[in-house]
Amino acid sequence: MDKSKRQFLGKMASVSVGAALIPVVQVQAQQAQTAATGKRYGMVIDLRRCVGCQACTVACTFENLPPLGQFRTTVQQYEVSQQDAATPPAFLMLPRLCNHCENPPCIPICPTGATFQRPDGIVVVNNEWCVGCGYCVQACPYDARFINHETNTADKCTFCAHRLEAGLLPACVETCVGEARVIGDLNDPHSHISQLLKANQADIKVLKPDANTGPRVFYIGMNSAFEDRINGQAPVRTLLTDTGEEIHHGH
Amino acid sequence: MVIKEIFTPDIAITWLPWAVQYFFLMGLAYASVWVATIHLCSAKQTDARLLKLCACLMLTAGIVAPIALLADLHQPLRAWHFYAQIRPYSWMWYGAFLLPIFSGTSLVFAWLLLRPYLPQAHSSLTSSAEEADWLSRIGQWLRFGNWSSDKWLKPIALIATLSACSIALYTGMETMAIKARPLWHTYWLPPLMATSALLAACGTLAVLNRILHGYQASTQDRLLQWVRASFGLFALCLIGWALFDNGSAHEAALLLDTSPSWQLAAIWVLVTLALLALVLAVRRLPSVLMLVVSLTAVHLAWGFRWIVLIQAQTDPKYGAGTYFYQLPWGPEGLLGIAGTFGLWLALMVLVSEFIRHQPRSAQQTL
Lengths: 251, 366
Known about the structure:
The complex is a heterodimer.
Chain A: H1 3-33, E1 41-46, H2 55-64, E2 74-81, E3 90-96, E4 115-117, E5 123-125, H3 135-139, E6 146-147, E7 154-155, H4 161-165, H5 171-175, E8 181-185, H6 192-199, E9 204-205, E10 217-220, E11 237-240, E12 246-249
Chain B: E1 2-7, H1 17-42, H2 48-72, H3 91-114, H4 128-132, H5 134-142, H6 150-176, H7 189-211, H8 217-244, H9 247-258, H10 260-280, H11 287-309, H12 334-354
């Protein structure tokens, strides 16, 4: 093989290796961008203040534009009645979102590293790197993830990281009429969230505490019957198809 | 306290029927490698027909299965992302390496088994009309010469079998590793998947023996023993899971209490198991009944994967009851299932065309 051919092949090899490494560098770069703020974001949701108006659901949808029928946050509504007929039923509104766990089960199983935890604790997805295998969706014990029908990649709540970086509150927090949702730095003992957690220490609960995920979304005023999977009656559920057509069934 | 869900979302399934096709076809491929190797290493006189059918199955199912897997990725063109970093805690990441290794080893194993049946360049048995046939010419080229490949068969069979075991392990563990789904999170799942794959492969081989030209009654008898053994293993694993598993079997029992679709699934599994057990207990089966048994075994293994992979996703992680799933008609549903089976069938036809020309004897022609 003559010298020019060898040089050409050598250059091609460097270009190929370089091209293959670009996305790796991108993933690492994205992680580096949010390094070392010393913060650990978490959210407290005071159920005593939630009226189930779904303003957070709507605000999140306006802010993050998930496809029709898919949500990063919702407020689930339950009727709770006692065995005796004398007590009237009560209603529980349960806002749900990604728990940005301390030990997120969605991250280690990701085969490409597209989902990762920022130094400030927020779990995010690099949707330019995600292959859409859905493994993280299966692994999340909270059904907080979904495959976005438009991007065909994993999608989830990001605590509106883009707004936090701009000094704004997440859309759901900002719009909450009852101020039920409070976000803040769990590492700062003087932050509003830390104060709230301290003041309501006896009444703080997380979802699925036995799953060892270490959720960083805390609930005040939640009955322990709601900590784990609901043992109750399901409603008539509906699903929206990609075209917006509603399909439903009864139980 | 009585809790009624008033307003909660229905969660759509994430792994689509493509996943069932992948697990099913990959099961056929790795289990046919097992059958071929065990037969090759244990039988005093090898059954050429059985080995040839195994080779056809591992080759065709081994090609279609990764295609179904790629289709289940919502971003199939990004599949190369698997190879751009190290993810040692993800079974799926290991699978991305184990799968091409299996494709390679099973391809070589199948080629070695089928090579003697490919047309030879200057065979006296080949007619002049066949020599002009382009398929024949490609077949000749696929032999890569007229050298003897027999000495390579057993070493490659062992390598392919190890690789097949790695696929059985990773596909089982990949699903079992999901703690969030109690139905999946049981050590019984990988053996259940593997034994049902073996059952499906033996059933498919028996069907292929029946429908492809060159039916051999002795091969069918041997396959009946294989079906019996694999059915026994699968039933034992199922009984073991039901009796000794806490989390997964407990979750299934809860679903049986409340969900009509799960009750229907349980009735279907039990009735199929009982019918198969009853028929397989008969010493000699008429050939038609053997065909029915084989098809029933295949349908049991496929249905088992449907229940595990699709219906299990309708089991809510937090909510009450079960979620709703309706099989779509398009590529993400029925068309995808039909398409993968159609592709497999087309490949079977193609492979059987390549090896129709020059067998060692007229008896062994496919």
